[in-house]
Amino acid sequence: MRQQWPSSPSYFRDKVVTRDHLRARAKDTLGFRYTLILSGAVTEYTVSEFNGVDLEKHVARTYGYPEARLHVTALQDVAKFIVGSVLLPFDNPTQPMRELRVSGDCLTWKALMQLLEEMQGVKYDIKYLDPALAAEKQEAARAAGDSEGELQWSACATMANGYALLPEPSDNHRFKFRAETAKDTLTRMFGVKK
């Protein structure tokens, strides 16, 4: 049975379609195996214009809630996890699919914004907006045939809403590197302001 998502259906719909396709290929292709990597939100995108964060004007308009938790992973670490997964043996070679859950950090949206303020040495003007507004903008983009806009608004309704959490347990321990925390990534991006 397909999982129904309470928000951001477009964002998750494409992932479900991909999973369904891989599952079907595994049924009709002898020896076909695949790995699904769940990595949470990309840290660099969470604090970007894509997600309502203006790094120059120090303003954030976030669709969601300050205490919403999310998993984040630096983009470079997502690539490391994908490449590293190729070298990991399947625990059960008779199963065509495995799922690896990896991330760099788990924190609240409020804590992420506090880290951003610390790294940039400024105070942000942060307003939390009703996620239903992003859903309305997503639907308007879909109706207009704007698939890029539909995807963006779909993702915006996910980040600070509590839907960017990975199921436990984590598979980080299976890899030979330590993923960056949110603080590591923001330090790399901005340095520490005094």
TrEMBL record:
Sorted UniProt keywords: NADP, Oxidoreductase
Superkingdom, taxonomy of origin: Eukaryota
InterPro entries: NAD(P)-bd_dom_sf (IPR036291), NmrA/Isoflavone_reductase-like (IPR051609)
Molecular functions per Gene Ontology: oxidoreductase activity
PANTHER family in UniProt: NMRA-LIKE DOMAIN-CONTAINING PROTEIN-RELATED, NMRA-LIKE FAMILY PROTEIN
Protein name: NAD(P)-binding protein
Organism: Mycena venus
